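task queued by scheduler; priority normal; single chain, no ligands, no partner chains; default sampling; output format set to C-alpha coordinates
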Amino acid sequence: MASYYKFAERQADSFVNWAEIGKGITDMIQTEVAIRDQKRAAIDQATRDNLKKIAEAPVGSHEGLNTWTLNYADSAREAILLQDRLLKQGILKLKDYTVMRQNLNDGTDELFGVIKNFQNTYKQKRDRLVSTDPKNRSQQIEMDLLAYTEQFGDFSKSMAIIDPRNFTVNVGLMEPDPDNQGVMKVGKQIATTSFLRKIQDTKVDYFDADAAADSISKGMGKYVRATIAEMSSLQGKVVTKEGIKNSTEYNKIIETALKGVFSNPFNMTSILTENLVQDDQGRPYVSSLSGKEGNVIQLKFNPATNYYEPELTKEQKDAVVNYMKELIDFRIDDIEKEDPFNYPTQPKAEATPTTSGGNYAESVNQFKTKLKQVKPKRDNYVFTGTEAITVENLQNLLSSDPALIGKFKVSSADNVVTVTDNDDVLIGSYDLSKTQASGDLKQRERYLDDLINRVTNYSISKDPTIIGVSLMTGQQTGGASRFNP
Protein backbone atom coordinates (compact mmCIF):
# COMPACT_ATOMS: atom_id res chain seq x y z
CA MET A 1 0.00 0.00 0.00
CA ALA A 2 2.76 2.34 0.86
CA SER A 3 4.32 1.84 -2.51
CA TYR A 4 1.06 2.59 -4.33
CA TYR A 5 0.50 5.69 -2.23
CA LYS A 6 3.83 7.12 -3.25
CA PHE A 7 3.19 6.41 -6.94
CA ALA A 8 -0.21 8.07 -6.84
CA GLU A 9 1.28 11.13 -5.20
CA ARG A 10 3.86 11.55 -7.91
CA GLN A 11 1.16 11.13 -10.56
CA ALA A 12 -0.87 13.92 -8.97
CA ASP A 13 2.15 16.23 -8.90
CA SER A 14 2.81 15.76 -12.65
CA PHE A 15 -0.73 16.60 -13.81
CA VAL A 16 -0.82 18.88 -16.95
CA ASN A 17 -3.70 21.24 -17.72
CA TRP A 18 -4.00 20.62 -21.45
CA ALA A 19 -7.13 22.72 -21.71
CA GLU A 20 -5.22 25.83 -20.65
CA ILE A 21 -2.27 25.04 -22.92
CA GLY A 22 -4.63 24.45 -25.82
CA LYS A 23 -6.24 27.81 -25.27
CA GLY A 24 -2.80 29.51 -25.20
CA ILE A 25 -1.75 27.88 -28.47
CA THR A 26 -5.05 28.83 -30.08
CA ASP A 27 -4.65 32.44 -28.94
CA MET A 28 -1.08 32.53 -30.28
CA ILE A 29 -2.12 31.17 -33.66
CA GLN A 30 -5.02 33.57 -33.85
CA THR A 31 -2.69 36.45 -32.98
CA GLU A 32 -0.24 35.42 -35.71
CA VAL A 33 -3.08 35.12 -38.18
CA ALA A 34 -4.30 38.58 -37.17
CA ILE A 35 -0.78 40.00 -37.60
CA ARG A 36 -0.49 38.35 -41.00
CA ASP A 37 -3.88 39.70 -41.98
CA GLN A 38 -2.79 43.18 -40.86
CA LYS A 39 0.44 42.89 -42.87
CA ARG A 40 -1.46 41.58 -45.86
CA ALA A 41 -3.93 44.44 -45.58
CA ALA A 42 -1.11 46.96 -45.26
CA ILE A 43 0.66 45.50 -48.31
CA ASP A 44 -2.57 45.50 -50.32
CA GLN A 45 -3.24 49.11 -49.31
CA ALA A 46 0.30 50.13 -50.25
CA THR A 47 -0.12 48.42 -53.59
CA ARG A 48 -3.37 50.29 -54.23
CA ASP A 49 -1.67 53.57 -53.30
CA ASN A 50 1.28 52.82 -55.60
CA LEU A 51 -0.99 51.93 -58.50
CA LYS A 52 -2.96 55.11 -57.93
CA LYS A 53 0.25 57.17 -58.02
CA ILE A 54 1.32 55.43 -61.22
CA ALA A 55 -2.07 56.16 -62.75
CA GLU A 56 -1.52 59.86 -61.98
CA ALA A 57 1.65 60.03 -64.08
CA PRO A 58 2.27 63.62 -65.23
CA VAL A 59 0.96 64.38 -68.70
CA GLY A 60 0.81 67.58 -70.68
CA SER A 61 0.49 68.96 -74.16
CA HIS A 62 3.59 67.19 -75.49
CA GLU A 63 2.30 64.03 -77.18
CA GLY A 64 5.71 62.36 -77.25
CA LEU A 65 6.23 62.97 -73.54
CA ASN A 66 2.74 61.65 -72.75
CA THR A 67 3.36 58.40 -74.64
CA TRP A 68 6.80 58.02 -73.04
CA THR A 69 5.40 58.56 -69.54
CA LEU A 70 2.40 56.25 -70.02
CA ASN A 71 4.65 53.48 -71.33
CA TYR A 72 6.66 53.71 -68.14
CA ALA A 73 3.46 53.74 -66.06
CA ASP A 74 2.41 50.45 -67.66
CA SER A 75 5.80 48.90 -66.85
CA ALA A 76 5.64 50.14 -63.26
CA ARG A 77 2.13 48.75 -62.83
CA GLU A 78 3.25 45.32 -64.05
CA ALA A 79 6.29 45.45 -61.74
CA ILE A 80 4.09 46.22 -58.71
CA LEU A 81 1.69 43.37 -59.43
CA LEU A 82 4.62 41.00 -60.02
CA GLN A 83 6.12 41.92 -56.65
CA ASP A 84 2.81 41.23 -54.90
CA ARG A 85 2.35 37.88 -56.64
CA LEU A 86 5.87 36.67 -55.81
CA LEU A 87 5.46 37.72 -52.18
CA LYS A 88 2.12 35.93 -51.73
CA GLN A 89 3.52 32.79 -53.37
CA GLY A 90 6.37 32.76 -50.88
CA ILE A 91 8.97 33.11 -53.63
CA LEU A 92 9.96 36.62 -52.48
CA LYS A 93 10.95 37.31 -48.87
CA LEU A 94 9.24 40.19 -47.13
CA LYS A 95 12.58 41.93 -46.55
CA ASP A 96 13.51 41.75 -50.26
CA TYR A 97 10.00 42.79 -51.23
CA THR A 98 10.25 45.90 -49.02
CA VAL A 99 13.58 46.95 -50.52
CA MET A 100 12.40 46.40 -54.10
CA ARG A 101 9.14 48.25 -53.54
CA GLN A 102 11.02 51.20 -51.99
CA ASN A 103 13.44 51.30 -54.95
CA LEU A 104 10.51 51.37 -57.36
CA ASN A 105 8.67 54.07 -55.40
CA ASP A 106 11.75 56.30 -55.07
CA GLY A 107 12.68 55.84 -58.72
CA THR A 108 9.15 56.65 -59.86
CA ASP A 109 9.04 59.80 -57.73
CA GLU A 110 12.41 60.94 -59.09
CA LEU A 111 11.46 60.15 -62.67
CA PHE A 112 8.19 62.08 -62.50
CA GLY A 113 10.04 64.90 -60.73
CA VAL A 114 12.62 65.08 -63.51
CA ILE A 115 9.87 65.17 -66.13
CA LYS A 116 7.95 67.92 -64.34
CA ASN A 117 11.04 69.96 -63.60
CA PHE A 118 12.90 69.73 -66.90
CA GLN A 119 11.53 72.82 -68.66
CA ASN A 120 11.79 75.04 -65.58
CA THR A 121 15.34 73.83 -64.93
CA TYR A 122 16.41 74.53 -68.51
CA LYS A 123 15.16 78.13 -68.30
CA GLN A 124 16.86 78.71 -64.93
CA LYS A 125 20.17 77.35 -66.15
CA ARG A 126 19.98 79.36 -69.36
CA ASP A 127 19.35 82.53 -67.35
CA ARG A 128 22.34 81.76 -65.13
CA LEU A 129 24.62 81.24 -68.12
CA VAL A 130 23.88 84.68 -69.63
CA SER A 131 23.74 86.53 -66.30
CA THR A 132 26.14 89.46 -65.84
CA ASP A 133 26.15 89.03 -62.05
CA PRO A 134 29.22 86.91 -61.10
CA LYS A 135 27.44 85.73 -57.93
CA ASN A 136 24.47 84.36 -59.87
CA ARG A 137 26.23 83.17 -62.99
CA SER A 138 27.12 79.69 -64.20
CA GLN A 139 29.92 78.40 -66.39
CA GLN A 140 29.43 76.63 -69.71
CA ILE A 141 29.96 73.18 -68.19
CA GLU A 142 26.67 73.50 -66.28
CA MET A 143 24.79 73.74 -69.58
CA ASP A 144 26.90 70.96 -71.11
CA LEU A 145 25.87 68.64 -68.27
CA LEU A 146 22.22 69.55 -68.71
CA ALA A 147 22.47 69.05 -72.47
CA TYR A 148 23.99 65.64 -71.84
CA THR A 149 21.00 64.64 -69.71
CA GLU A 150 18.64 66.22 -72.23
CA GLN A 151 19.29 63.36 -74.63
CA PHE A 152 17.77 61.03 -72.04
CA GLY A 153 14.70 63.23 -72.25
CA ASP A 154 14.49 62.91 -76.01
CA PHE A 155 11.32 60.85 -75.96
CA SER A 156 11.92 59.44 -79.42
CA LYS A 157 15.35 58.08 -78.48
CA SER A 158 15.08 57.06 -74.82
CA MET A 159 13.07 54.75 -72.61
CA ALA A 160 12.38 54.51 -68.88
CA ILE A 161 13.21 51.01 -67.70
CA ILE A 162 12.94 49.06 -64.44
CA ASP A 163 15.87 46.86 -63.43
CA PRO A 164 14.32 43.41 -62.69
CA ARG A 165 17.11 42.57 -60.24
CA ASN A 166 16.35 45.30 -57.72
CA PHE A 167 13.52 47.32 -59.32
CA THR A 168 15.51 50.55 -59.52
CA VAL A 169 14.32 52.99 -62.20
CA ASN A 170 16.72 54.03 -64.97
CA VAL A 171 16.57 55.78 -68.32
CA GLY A 172 18.36 54.24 -71.29
CA LEU A 173 19.18 55.57 -74.74
CA MET A 174 17.78 53.59 -77.65
CA GLU A 175 19.92 52.43 -80.54
CA PRO A 176 19.27 50.35 -83.69
CA ASP A 177 19.21 46.60 -83.13
CA PRO A 178 21.78 45.10 -85.54
CA ASP A 179 19.95 41.77 -85.50
CA ASN A 180 16.52 43.23 -86.28
CA GLN A 181 16.37 45.88 -88.98
CA GLY A 182 14.11 48.77 -88.12
CA VAL A 183 13.91 47.80 -84.42
CA MET A 184 15.31 49.96 -81.61
CA LYS A 185 16.71 48.53 -78.37
CA VAL A 186 18.12 49.94 -75.13
CA GLY A 187 21.87 50.52 -75.55
CA LYS A 188 24.74 50.74 -73.07
CA GLN A 189 24.14 54.37 -72.09
CA ILE A 190 21.89 54.10 -69.05
CA ALA A 191 21.43 56.76 -66.35
CA THR A 192 19.74 56.44 -62.99
CA THR A 193 16.89 58.80 -62.18
CA SER A 194 18.84 60.06 -59.15
CA PHE A 195 21.72 61.04 -61.44
CA LEU A 196 19.42 62.92 -63.81
CA ARG A 197 17.78 64.74 -60.92
CA LYS A 198 21.13 65.62 -59.37
CA ILE A 199 22.34 67.25 -62.58
CA GLN A 200 19.11 69.22 -62.75
CA ASP A 201 19.56 70.47 -59.19
CA THR A 202 23.36 70.99 -59.09
CA LYS A 203 24.85 74.35 -59.98
CA VAL A 204 28.34 74.76 -61.46
CA ASP A 205 29.05 78.35 -60.52
CA TYR A 206 31.10 80.88 -62.42
CA PHE A 207 34.41 81.61 -60.71
CA ASP A 208 35.09 85.33 -60.30
CA ALA A 209 38.82 85.41 -61.08
CA ASP A 210 39.04 89.20 -60.70
CA ALA A 211 37.57 89.09 -57.19
CA ALA A 212 39.95 86.28 -56.22
CA ALA A 213 42.96 88.21 -57.55
CA ASP A 214 41.85 91.30 -55.58
CA SER A 215 41.59 89.26 -52.39
CA ILE A 216 44.99 87.60 -52.80
CA SER A 217 46.85 90.81 -53.69
CA LYS A 218 45.35 92.71 -50.74
CA GLY A 219 46.41 89.96 -48.37
CA MET A 220 50.11 90.23 -49.22
CA GLY A 221 52.51 91.96 -46.86
CA LYS A 222 54.93 94.81 -47.44
CA TYR A 223 58.37 94.25 -48.89
CA VAL A 224 61.31 96.59 -49.44
CA ARG A 225 64.62 95.71 -51.03
CA ALA A 226 67.48 98.18 -51.33
CA THR A 227 70.84 97.86 -53.10
CA ILE A 228 73.85 100.16 -53.38
CA ALA A 229 75.36 101.19 -56.73
CA GLU A 230 78.38 103.40 -57.37
CA MET A 231 78.04 106.22 -59.90
CA SER A 232 81.50 107.75 -59.54
CA SER A 233 84.39 107.94 -57.11
CA LEU A 234 82.47 110.58 -55.15
CA GLN A 235 78.87 109.51 -55.50
CA GLY A 236 76.70 106.44 -55.15
CA LYS A 237 73.00 105.71 -55.18
CA VAL A 238 70.55 103.60 -53.20
CA VAL A 239 68.17 101.67 -55.48
CA THR A 240 65.03 100.82 -53.51
CA LYS A 241 62.40 98.39 -54.82
CA GLU A 242 59.07 98.21 -53.01
CA GLY A 243 56.47 95.51 -53.61
CA ILE A 244 56.21 91.84 -52.71
CA LYS A 245 57.03 90.88 -56.31
CA ASN A 246 60.67 91.68 -55.53
CA SER A 247 60.76 89.01 -52.82
CA THR A 248 62.45 85.70 -53.59
CA GLU A 249 59.44 84.09 -51.89
CA TYR A 250 56.91 85.76 -54.19
CA ASN A 251 56.21 82.78 -56.45
CA LYS A 252 55.91 80.48 -53.45
CA ILE A 253 53.42 82.86 -51.81
CA ILE A 254 51.31 82.97 -55.00
CA GLU A 255 51.34 79.19 -55.42
CA THR A 256 50.24 78.66 -51.81
CA ALA A 257 47.36 81.11 -52.23
CA LEU A 258 46.22 79.50 -55.48
CA LYS A 259 46.19 76.00 -53.97
CA GLY A 260 43.35 77.12 -51.73
CA VAL A 261 41.52 78.83 -54.59
CA PHE A 262 41.75 75.78 -56.84
CA SER A 263 40.84 73.16 -54.24
CA ASN A 264 37.56 73.21 -56.21
CA PRO A 265 38.59 72.02 -59.71
CA PHE A 266 35.50 73.62 -61.25
CA ASN A 267 37.09 77.02 -60.46
CA MET A 268 39.82 76.08 -62.94
CA THR A 269 37.35 74.96 -65.62
CA SER A 270 35.54 78.27 -65.24
CA ILE A 271 38.72 80.21 -66.04
CA LEU A 272 39.35 78.02 -69.07
CA THR A 273 35.87 78.35 -70.59
CA GLU A 274 34.83 81.82 -69.39
CA ASN A 275 38.08 83.84 -69.17
CA LEU A 276 40.72 82.30 -71.42
CA VAL A 277 38.07 80.87 -73.81
CA GLN A 278 40.74 79.45 -76.13
CA ASP A 279 44.33 78.20 -75.93
CA ASP A 280 47.48 79.59 -77.59
CA GLN A 281 46.66 77.68 -80.77
CA GLY A 282 43.22 79.26 -81.02
CA ARG A 283 41.33 76.10 -80.02
CA PRO A 284 38.29 76.76 -77.80
CA TYR A 285 38.17 75.10 -74.39
CA VAL A 286 35.22 72.67 -74.44
CA SER A 287 34.03 69.90 -72.14
CA SER A 288 34.13 66.26 -73.19
CA LEU A 289 30.32 66.09 -72.81
CA SER A 290 29.70 68.89 -75.29
CA GLY A 291 30.68 66.79 -78.32
CA LYS A 292 32.53 69.83 -79.72
CA GLU A 293 36.07 69.94 -81.09
CA GLY A 294 38.78 71.97 -79.39
CA ASN A 295 40.99 71.80 -76.32
CA VAL A 296 38.89 69.21 -74.49
CA ILE A 297 38.36 69.32 -70.73
CA GLN A 298 37.79 65.72 -69.66
CA LEU A 299 34.80 65.16 -67.36
CA LYS A 300 34.73 61.70 -65.79
CA PHE A 301 31.88 60.18 -63.82
CA ASN A 302 32.64 59.42 -60.16
CA PRO A 303 30.32 56.72 -58.76
CA ALA A 304 31.15 57.82 -55.22
CA THR A 305 29.63 61.27 -55.77
CA ASN A 306 27.19 60.29 -58.54
CA TYR A 307 28.52 63.21 -60.56
CA TYR A 308 31.10 64.22 -63.13
CA GLU A 309 34.48 65.61 -62.08
CA PRO A 310 37.05 67.41 -64.27
CA GLU A 311 40.46 65.91 -65.00
CA LEU A 312 42.67 68.69 -66.33
CA THR A 313 45.93 68.21 -68.22
CA LYS A 314 49.17 69.83 -67.02
CA GLU A 315 48.95 72.33 -69.90
CA GLN A 316 45.42 73.32 -68.89
CA LYS A 317 46.43 73.74 -65.24
CA ASP A 318 49.49 75.81 -66.19
CA ALA A 319 47.34 78.05 -68.38
CA VAL A 320 44.98 78.71 -65.47
CA VAL A 321 47.79 79.39 -62.97
CA ASN A 322 49.61 81.74 -65.35
CA TYR A 323 46.38 83.64 -66.01
CA MET A 324 45.78 84.13 -62.27
CA LYS A 325 49.40 85.20 -61.72
CA GLU A 326 49.00 87.88 -64.37
CA LEU A 327 45.84 89.17 -62.70
CA ILE A 328 47.59 89.31 -59.32
CA ASP A 329 50.76 90.91 -60.72
CA PHE A 330 48.66 93.64 -62.28
CA ARG A 331 47.22 94.53 -58.86
CA ILE A 332 50.49 94.72 -56.91
CA ASP A 333 52.41 97.99 -56.75
CA ASP A 334 56.00 97.68 -57.93
CA ILE A 335 57.84 100.90 -57.14
CA GLU A 336 61.52 101.51 -57.84
CA LYS A 337 63.30 104.68 -56.79
CA GLU A 338 66.89 105.91 -56.78
CA ASP A 339 68.39 108.16 -54.10
CA PRO A 340 71.82 109.51 -55.11
CA PHE A 341 74.16 110.46 -52.30
CA ASN A 342 77.67 111.79 -51.82
CA TYR A 343 80.08 109.51 -50.06
CA PRO A 344 80.38 110.76 -46.47
CA THR A 345 83.70 112.22 -45.30
CA GLN A 346 85.18 112.48 -41.83
CA PRO A 347 87.12 115.56 -40.65
CA LYS A 348 90.89 114.94 -40.43
CA ALA A 349 90.82 115.71 -36.71
CA GLU A 350 88.92 112.47 -36.24
CA ALA A 351 91.13 110.43 -38.51
CA THR A 352 91.05 106.69 -38.32
CA PRO A 353 93.28 104.05 -39.84
CA THR A 354 92.75 103.67 -43.57
CA THR A 355 92.28 100.67 -45.75
CA SER A 356 93.64 99.99 -49.19
CA GLY A 357 91.48 100.67 -52.19
CA GLY A 358 89.99 103.89 -50.85
CA ASN A 359 86.40 103.54 -52.10
CA TYR A 360 83.00 103.16 -50.57
CA ALA A 361 82.38 99.72 -52.07
CA GLU A 362 85.39 98.36 -50.19
CA SER A 363 84.01 99.87 -47.00
CA VAL A 364 80.71 98.15 -47.56
CA ASN A 365 82.48 94.82 -48.09
CA GLN A 366 84.48 95.46 -44.96
CA PHE A 367 81.27 95.98 -43.01
CA LYS A 368 79.82 92.73 -44.37
CA THR A 369 83.01 90.85 -43.48
CA LYS A 370 82.80 92.23 -39.97
CA LEU A 371 79.24 90.84 -39.62
CA LYS A 372 80.20 87.48 -41.06
CA GLN A 373 82.93 87.09 -38.47
CA VAL A 374 80.43 87.36 -35.61
CA LYS A 375 80.53 83.99 -33.88
CA PRO A 376 77.23 82.15 -33.36
CA LYS A 377 75.95 82.16 -29.82
CA ARG A 378 75.24 78.43 -30.08
CA ASP A 379 76.44 75.80 -32.57
CA ASN A 380 79.14 76.43 -35.17
CA TYR A 381 76.84 77.99 -37.75
CA VAL A 382 74.25 80.77 -37.56
CA PHE A 383 71.68 78.72 -39.51
CA THR A 384 71.69 75.42 -37.68
CA GLY A 385 68.43 73.94 -38.92
CA THR A 386 66.84 74.28 -35.48
CA GLU A 387 64.37 77.15 -35.15
CA ALA A 388 65.09 78.17 -31.56
CA ILE A 389 68.89 78.12 -31.93
CA THR A 390 68.79 79.88 -35.31
CA VAL A 391 66.56 82.65 -33.95
CA GLU A 392 68.92 83.14 -31.01
CA ASN A 393 71.97 83.26 -33.31
CA LEU A 394 70.32 85.79 -35.65
CA GLN A 395 69.30 88.01 -32.74
CA ASN A 396 72.91 87.91 -31.58
CA LEU A 397 74.18 88.75 -35.09
CA LEU A 398 71.77 91.66 -35.56
CA SER A 399 72.75 93.23 -32.24
CA SER A 400 76.49 92.79 -32.73
CA ASP A 401 76.99 96.20 -34.38
CA PRO A 402 75.81 99.62 -33.15
CA ALA A 403 74.47 100.38 -36.65
CA LEU A 404 72.03 97.46 -36.41
CA ILE A 405 70.95 97.34 -32.78
CA GLY A 406 67.18 97.60 -32.28
CA LYS A 407 66.39 97.87 -35.99
CA PHE A 408 65.39 94.29 -36.84
CA LYS A 409 63.13 91.53 -35.53
CA VAL A 410 63.51 87.76 -35.88
CA SER A 411 60.60 85.29 -35.78
CA SER A 412 59.96 81.69 -36.77
CA ALA A 413 57.02 79.46 -37.69
CA ASP A 414 56.70 76.06 -39.35
CA ASN A 415 60.48 75.72 -39.73
CA VAL A 416 60.81 79.07 -41.53
CA VAL A 417 62.81 81.93 -39.98
CA THR A 418 61.88 85.48 -40.99
CA VAL A 419 63.75 88.77 -40.48
CA THR A 420 61.80 92.06 -40.68
CA ASP A 421 62.36 95.68 -39.66
CA ASN A 422 60.34 97.25 -36.86
CA ASP A 423 57.59 98.16 -39.32
CA ASP A 424 57.26 94.50 -40.37
CA VAL A 425 58.86 95.12 -43.76
CA LEU A 426 60.28 91.78 -44.91
CA ILE A 427 64.08 91.66 -45.08
CA GLY A 428 64.56 87.92 -45.61
CA SER A 429 62.81 84.58 -45.13
CA TYR A 430 64.66 81.25 -44.85
CA ASP A 431 63.39 77.68 -44.99
CA LEU A 432 65.39 75.71 -42.41
CA SER A 433 64.27 72.37 -43.82
CA LYS A 434 66.90 72.95 -46.53
CA THR A 435 69.69 73.16 -43.92
CA GLN A 436 68.73 70.13 -41.84
CA ALA A 437 70.48 67.56 -44.02
CA SER A 438 73.68 66.29 -42.45
CA GLY A 439 76.70 68.19 -43.71
CA ASP A 440 74.67 70.73 -45.71
CA LEU A 441 77.06 73.56 -44.89
CA LYS A 442 76.91 75.37 -48.25
CA GLN A 443 73.21 76.17 -47.83
CA ARG A 444 73.89 77.61 -44.37
CA GLU A 445 76.65 79.80 -45.78
CA ARG A 446 74.40 80.94 -48.65
CA TYR A 447 71.67 81.89 -46.18
CA LEU A 448 74.13 83.86 -44.05
CA ASP A 449 75.62 85.71 -47.04
CA ASP A 450 72.14 86.52 -48.34
CA LEU A 451 70.96 87.88 -44.99
CA ILE A 452 74.08 90.00 -44.46
CA ASN A 453 73.72 91.49 -47.95
CA ARG A 454 70.05 92.27 -47.36
CA VAL A 455 70.62 93.79 -43.93
CA THR A 456 73.55 95.88 -45.18
CA ASN A 457 71.75 97.22 -48.25
CA TYR A 458 68.60 97.95 -46.29
CA SER A 459 70.55 99.78 -43.56
CA ILE A 460 72.47 101.86 -46.09
CA SER A 461 69.20 102.79 -47.81
CA LYS A 462 68.05 104.29 -44.52
CA ASP A 463 71.37 106.00 -43.70
CA PRO A 464 74.40 105.77 -46.05
CA THR A 465 76.75 107.02 -43.29
CA ILE A 466 76.29 104.01 -41.03
CA ILE A 467 79.14 102.13 -42.74
CA GLY A 468 81.68 104.70 -41.73
CA VAL A 469 80.26 105.05 -38.25
CA SER A 470 80.22 101.30 -37.74
CA LEU A 471 83.77 100.76 -38.88
CA MET A 472 85.10 103.62 -36.77
CA THR A 473 83.21 102.36 -33.73
CA GLY A 474 84.27 98.77 -34.15
CA GLN A 475 87.96 99.53 -34.87
CA GLN A 476 88.17 96.16 -36.59
CA THR A 477 90.34 96.50 -39.69
CA GLY A 478 90.27 100.24 -39.96
CA GLY A 479 87.84 102.83 -41.35
CA ALA A 480 87.42 103.38 -45.03
CA SER A 481 89.50 106.13 -46.61
CA ARG A 482 86.25 107.57 -48.02
CA PHE A 483 85.67 108.91 -44.47
CA ASN A 484 89.30 109.98 -44.03
CA PRO A 485 90.42 111.83 -47.10
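post-processing summary
- The chain has three domains: 24-201, 209-338, 346-483.
- Residues 1-10, 346-358, 471-485 have pLDDT under 50 and may be disordered.
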